[in-house]
Design brief:
The structure holds two protein chains of two kinds. Chain A is built from 15 helices and eight strands. The longest helix of chain A is centred in the N-terminal third of the chain and has 29 residues. By secondary structure, chain A is an alpha+beta fold. Chain A starts with 8 loop residues before the first strand and ends with a helix. By secondary structure, chain B is mainly α. Helices cover 68% and strands 0% of the residues of chain B. The longest helix of chain B has 33 residues. The chains are: A alpha+beta, B mainly alpha.
Chain lengths: 367, 315
């Protein structure tokens, strides 16, 4: 029987659209409800962040690094600190290393909770959205307690951290860990195992292992596709060598990516419990004065396991009071690169769910 | 005149009360405060919201014949206000097929949504119209079969017959007179959610995203009215209608309050359950309707036939 052949229609979504996780544009060729081709255009929130850092003194570079991804600002600070400390040969005191791990893992949990919010919103599961936001508040309270701000913390310093942890902080971290563990169980019952959600997420937007390796995908999305790489374990930095945790994996679909994040939260809680119970006594920073930093001529590339994958930072110093060159390698840029392969054959209705499941941060990609 | 004023006042008060209670209940379920600004504890928030929407000009871009279909859609829908079965005094016209009017209406609505979407001329609107129509068509069949299950007991399809075969106590309601009638009620409710695209079967959000201001206000009102209409039909057919104890029978205002109370309680229960679930895709909704609701409704009908046959043999 002869099939009716129709022309493909072009659909342009964005720069702002409720399907999209941030300001970027998707150009889709549609055959009815099905996507036959898709390309992503980015750069709409380009701020010249890397160039701006080079116009400021060394101490201010951490403020700018905060803005790389406002949702998990700690990781931007961390990676710049590691690169500069390598050039300057600064040894970070053990207490500061522990505090950095605590803050990083809290930021990881907080960002993963926000991931649940976005995924729930994409599926119109309002209950989970509000529950996850409520629980994330507890983590933001902790950030406020220790850094003075809920976002854009500006807390890490070359050689350590800005302030020591306050009395009762460790107890509160342990309390929050218990609450989050309990809540994850609750989320599983109301949402993760909901049959409608499973229908919308299992086998949808699958990233194969080959595709993940081909585009250089890292982080939870790569681990969900069977690429078991985690810098915290493969090339430990900043004290991660002394903690034990597992690298979770999953199927490469939306559900797999969600499950990996659920398991990662549990692993982060495991790390937090190991670290906070043995925070070493001593100094919290190797350099006391904010302006005392002297960075000799040299260059370094540091990378860390941020919440979305490998976050790299290349710093060049000419020995002056400002950085010569700073460049980031952000995981979201890589994720955007696989969209043209991933979107083909997908239903239009699945698009918001798949995009939410990728955990894109356009702020990080556009810089 | 006094009766009309009382009717309108009760309807508006119960509507506001329903919106307030449902929003508060859902907010409580979602660990948030809910409406709390306008009126005591935010009681008049629905009025404030509707006023706010209505003072904004809708920047909806009508193209071609879409305005015609838009007007037709709302004319179809709100014409049913004249035949709402809210009590013995409110059934102005009751034919032998009155119960089929909402079913007929849903078919007309889906057609006008399709033509409205096509006339809008954008990909999203065309897809939206097609989704709505396929969804409505999928929901119509199980709804009709479930209605036939109830008609076994009432032996007629008029509002009076449907209501008259039931009693005041839940034990004498059609829904609880047998297992197949109960199943039919569940199928009927779910089919209504599918037909009128009511949350969580509210799979199409594209049409909403193109509206604003008073156009969006009218659209929300139409959706809520569809939900109300279907719940009212469910209450009259399956949940005892306006049957009061003998002492109070025939008192129009009491019947009205009783029916509205049951309708809003049913709507509240559906909303609370719905909010706990994500929204499925349109193909999943139509699949559910054709592959689950339709066979189940046929099973309920056949089961009911067998039961009635056996009871006739024994009796």
């Amino acid at each position: 029987m002869e099939r009716l052949v129709t022309e493909h229609s072009r659909l342009e979504l964005g720069i702002y659209h409720r399907f999209l996780p941030g300001p970027f544009q998707l150009q889709l060729d549609m055959d009815g409800e099905m996507i036959v081709a898709g390309t992503a255009k980015t750069g709409f929130t380009h701020r010249g962040l890397e160039k701006a850092i080079t116009t400021q003194k060394w101490a201010a570079s951490l403020l700018y690094a905060d803005r790389l991804d406002p949702e998990s600002a700690i990781f931007g600070e961390y990676v710049v600190c590691l690169a500069v400390e390598e050039i300057a040969g600064i040894a970070v005191p053990p207490r500061a290393r522990s505090i950095r791990i605590v803050l990083s893992e809290l930021a990881r949990i907080s960002a993963h909770l926000m991931y649940f919010v976005r995924l729930a919103k994409a599926c119109s599961a309002e209950n989970l959205m509000h529950y996850a936001l409520r629980d994330r508040e507890k983590l933001l309270d902790l950030f406020e307690l220790i850094t003075g701000s809920r976002f854009s913390h500006n807390y890490f310093r070359f050689g350590g951290v800005r302030e020591d942890i306050t009395d009762g902080f460790i107890e509160r971290v342990l309390d929050v860990c218990s609450v989050i563990e309990f809540r994850l169980n609750e989320y599983s019952k109301i949402f993760f195992n909901n049959s409608i959600f499973l229908k919308r997420s299992v086998g949808v937007g699958t990233i194969s292992r080959e595709l993940a390796l081909g585009v250089g995908l890292t982080g939870p999305n790569a681990r969900a596709s069977g690429v078991f790489q985690d810098l915290r374990k493969d090339q430990p930095y900043g004290g991660y060598e002394s903690v034990t945790f597992q690298i979770p994996g999953g199927t490469g679909c939306v559900n797999g990516r969600l499950n990996v994040r659920v398991l990662e939260i549990l692993e982060s809680i495991k790390i937090l419990r190991q670290v906070v119970e043995h925070v070493p006594a001593g100094e919290y920073s190797a350099i006391k004065s904010r302006d005392a930093i002297k960075v000799p001529r040299g260059e370094a590339y540091a990378r860390i396991e941020s919440v979305r994958g490998v976050l790299g930072c290349y710093v060049v110093s000419s020995g002056g009071d400002k950085p010569e060159r700073v460049q980031f390698r952000s995981p979201t840029s890589v994720q955007l690169g696989l969209l043209s392969d991933l979107l083909v054959g997908m239903r239009l209705e699945d698009l918001p769910v798949v995009l939410a499941s990728l955990d894109l941060s356009l702020s990080e990609a556009d810089r | 005149m006094t009766m009309t004023l009382a009717f309108i006042s009760i309807l508006i008060f119960t509507l506001v009360f329903y919106f307030f209670v449902s929003r508060k209940a859902i907010a409580d379920l979602q660990a948030r405060v809910g409406p709390n600004q306008f009126g005591p504890s935010g009681f008049f928030q629905p009025i404030a919201d509707s006023l706010k929407l209505n003072q904004k000009r809708g920047d909806f871009n009508f193209r071609g014949d879409s305005a015609f279909w838009w007007i037709l859609f709302h004319t179809f829908l709100f014409s049913t206000l004249t035949i709402l079965p809210l009590g013995s005094a409110f059934v102005v016209y009751d034919s032998k097929m009155s119960v089929l009017i909402p079913i007929l209406l849903s078919g007309l609505l889906s057609m006008s949504m399709l033509l409205f979407g096509i006339n809008q001329g954008t990909l999203f609107s065309v897809l939206s119209g097609l989704r709505r129509t396929s969804q409505s068509m999928a929901g119509l069949f199980p709804a009709l079969v479930a209605l036939l299950c109830a008609a076994f007991r009432s032996k007629g399809l008029s509002w009076t017959e449907m209501n008259g075969c039931q009693g005041f106590l839940p034990l004498f309601w059609t829904a609880f007179s047998g297992p197949f009638e109960f199943l039919a009620m569940i199928i009927f409710i779910l089919s209504g959610l599918v037909i009128f695209s009511i949350y969580p079967m509210d799979v199409d959000r594209e049409s909403e995203s193109t509206m604003s201001g008073r156009v969006l206000g009218l659209y929300y009102l139409a959706k809520q009215y569809c939900f109300f209409l279907w719940s009212l039909v469910t209450v009259v057919i399956f949940l005892g209608g306006w049957q009061l104890p003998e002492l109070f029978q025939g008192i129009a205002l009491l019947e009205l309050i009783y029916v509205l109370g049951k309708v809003f309680l049913l709507m509240l229960v559906i909303q609370v359950i719905a909010k706990a679930n994500p929204v499925p895709r349109v193909d999943q909704v139509t699949d559910f309707s054709w592959k689950v609701l339709s066979p189940l409704s046929l099973g309920a009908l056949i089961g009911n036939c067998i039961l009635f046959y056996l009871s006739a043999q024994v009796g």
